[in-house]
Q: What sequence folds into this?
């Protein structure tokens, strides 16, 4: 009887824990004039004309639960009342490098938010496995948005840049809740990444991925969509953006994953531009493409 009771308690504990995944713990309004990006987007404490749209938006820092951990993130939403489609933004970098900041959300998500979207993103858990368990921190945001009054949890898209592109591929593999997605200069083959940038293997893969050197082949395949493109949610769609002068992610990866998607008749588009990893010369075009894609594929 004691064993039965203990087992029952354990199962109830697990069920309760998983039921909390995505639970919104805190949501605090951010005054962007008190953030580091302010000096870049304003002069004499007045927003530059390109950023006046921020007056129509609210930005929040959030904390939510994921696998029993408290994970930090950010949220941008229109001030105007309404129910809006959601776009989950997946940041690049790893660990403390290139963390999701208010500046990142403004540059990659505020123009989209102005058009009537709720943009939410995760900074991933402290123990970063670079495409390992922290993918749950992305997936659990589909539960978090159920607690965001202006978010439509039945209308979710995803936008990932660089490492965030890898996270987006993984999300499309593991979830059927993402109606459409955009990947910008994202890795789809980590074996190629290791050859293209050897320091990524020694300084990131080996340090983040558990027991990397003993399980290299298995772990890199898990994180490389080129090997399991046929597992991506068939009801979703994908826009792949590629900078042909990218020095951080081999531009050839975009061509190869596109060819694979073509083979399996996946709903995708590949758009290439003569620019760098950050689309430095095409920021305006980038915002226009993102808005156009989500307006066509996500808005009802």
A:
């Amino acid at each position: 009887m004691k064993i039965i009771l203990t087992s029952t308690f354990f199962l109830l504990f697990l069920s309760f824990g998983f039921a909390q995944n995505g639970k919104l713990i805190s949501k605090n309004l951010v005054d962007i004039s008190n953030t580091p990006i302010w000096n870049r987007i304003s002069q004499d404490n007045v927003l530059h004309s390109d950023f006046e749209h921020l007056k129509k938006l609210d930005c929040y820092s959030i904390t939510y639960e994921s696998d029993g951990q408290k994970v930090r993130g950010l949220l941008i939403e229109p001030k105007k009342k309404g129910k809006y489609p959601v776009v989950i933004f997946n940041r690049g970098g790893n660990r403390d490098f290139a963390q999701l900041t208010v500046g990142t959300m403004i540059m990659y998500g505020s123009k989209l938010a102005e058009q009537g979207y709720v943009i939410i993103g995760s900074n991933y858990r402290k123990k970063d496995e670079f495409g390992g368990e922290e993918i749950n921190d992305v997936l659990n945001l589909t539960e978090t948005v159920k607690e965001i009054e202006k978010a439509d949890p039945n209308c979710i898209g995803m936008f990932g840049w660089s490492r965030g592109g890898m996270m987006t591929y993984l999300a499309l593999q593991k979830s059927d809740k993402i109606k459409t997605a955009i990947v910008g200069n994202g890795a789809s083959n980590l074996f190629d990444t290791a050859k293209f940038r050897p320091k990524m293997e020694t300084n990131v893969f080996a340090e983040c991925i558990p027991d990397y050197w003993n399980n290299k082949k298995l772990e890199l395949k898990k994180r490389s969509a080129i090997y399991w493109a046929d597992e991506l949610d068939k009801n979703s769609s994908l826009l792949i953006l590629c900078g042909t002068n990218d020095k951080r992610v081999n531009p050839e990866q975009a061509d190869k994953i596109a060819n694979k998607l073509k083979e399996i008749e996946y709903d995708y588009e590949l758009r290439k531009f003569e620019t760098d990893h950050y689309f430095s010369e095409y920021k305006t075009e980038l915002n226009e493409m993102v808005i156009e894609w989500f307006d066509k594929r996500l808005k009802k």
About this structure: The radius of gyration is 20 Å.
